[in-house]
Amino acid sequence: MITTLAVENYRSLRKLIVPLDRLNVVTGANGTGKSSLYRALRLLAESARGGAVAALAREGGLPSALWAGPAKAEATSLRLGFAGDAFGYAVDFGHPIPTSGAGAEPSLFNLDPEIKRECTWAGPVLRPAALLCDRAGPAVRTRTADGGWHRSVNEIRPYDSMLSELADPQLAPDLLRLRELIRSWRFYDHVRTDAEAPARAARIGTRTPVLGHDGADLAAALQTIRETGDPAALDAAVDDAFPGSQVRITDSAGRFELQLHQRGLTRPLGAAELSDGTLRYLLWTAALLTPRPPSLLVLNEPETSLHPDLLRPLAELILAATKDTQVVLVTHAEPLAEAVAKGAARHRVDVNSIELCKESGRTEVAGRESLLDEPLWYWPKR
Predict the structure, then answer these.
(1) Closest C-alpha among 196, 174, 201 to residue 88
(2) CA dist., res. 318 & res. 324, Å (int)
(3) pLDDT for 95-104, tens place per residue?
(4) Is 234 exposed, middle or buried (0-12, 13-18, 19+ CB in 10 A)?
(5) 323: Cβ contacts below 8 Å, ≥ 6 apart
(6) Fewer CB within 10 Å: N-end or C-end of the chain?
(7) Cβ atoms 55, 39 nearer than 8 A
């Protein structure tokens, strides 16, 4: 489980170090940095897949993603990191070195950031004795089984992460375990429910323990829960939101289609007929009752287009997911945060409430009075 998240110089996150627990609810007014916190977590996940540099380039490169506060605090690096009881990881992105020299042509990739520093360590705090893998520019050293170091130079390009390039079961087994841990993280953000949404169409069905990010495999995901997951929890979640209703999946020549049977109706409603809110709730049901729980699940504003009456059932689904998964819920809906808090009190689940505010253009944690309120954190130096 992640116990600390650290971000420095990413958009409004000038310097943010927050503690995390099993269930985390991030709230705050519009523009306080909730979306930036969500995107920072996604960037960390992209590092394990070798896509963090490309993701930053899609945001307009490092100049667009960097902190843009007062000139005296002008930032030149973007740093992301997390730590838990078992592992910690930090990465430092900086500006590329411009192409120079006689006859050298300017590169068209000068908006791509470079990874200047990257470290993994054992335990919750970075210490020299806890280092497992240490990268400075093109040079990487990896701790060996006997406590020594294996050193290499120029084996990794400046725009590649060692998580994606050097995770070897023989040379760096700890790095491999960390990479697979991060790759298990799951993110859901604004799944489509419009008239042309993929979730509304019949699709070829195969076993689907993990709902896709576009929701196209919703019917297959719900049927997988029914056959290999917790069908009682699925039926209870639907009945809780829509009393007397049941979800059934039909199969026509291998194409699966969702049908909602509701009390008082003489025929079931197909996915194409459902309201945006009803369809979205069923999407969250499939995501949160997954038979293959991730180590970390991050939900960004799942309340969008939901009727207020559906917020309590959604809160119950989120609480149920915490039995097997660490959850970060980013929401601007106070009623959802309150529903989660009330449900947590009933189930005796601790809620880590993180309210963000903005002071002088920088995101802060509301109520934090001093640096002593922050978790202990050290960045690797360049």
Answers:
(1) 174
(2) 11
(3) 887 665 555 6
(4) buried
(5) none
(6) C
(7) no
CA–CA distance, 178 with 238 (Å, rounded to integer):
36
CA–CA separation, 236 and 180 (whole Å): 33
Phi-psi domain of 9 (left: phi exceeds 0; alpha: psi -120 through 50; beta: other): left
- pLDDT, tens digit (0-9, with 9 covering 90-100), for 151-169: 888 888 888 899 888 877 7
> From the DSSP assignment, how many helices (H) and strands (E) are in the chain?
10, 18
Domain-wise residue ranges, the chain: 2-17+42-185+366-373, 193-293
- What pLDDT was estimated at residue 170? 73
Could you tell me the CA-to-CA distances from 189 to 38, 260, 283, 350, 359 in Å, in that order? 9, 24, 11, 24, 27
Contact 47, 54 (CB under 8 A): no
**Percentage, residues of the chain above pLDDT 90:** 68
Q: Which two tokens stand for residue 277?
A: 């809110």
For residue 149, give the H/E element and its range.
Answer: strand 149-153
pTM, rounded to two decimals: 0.92
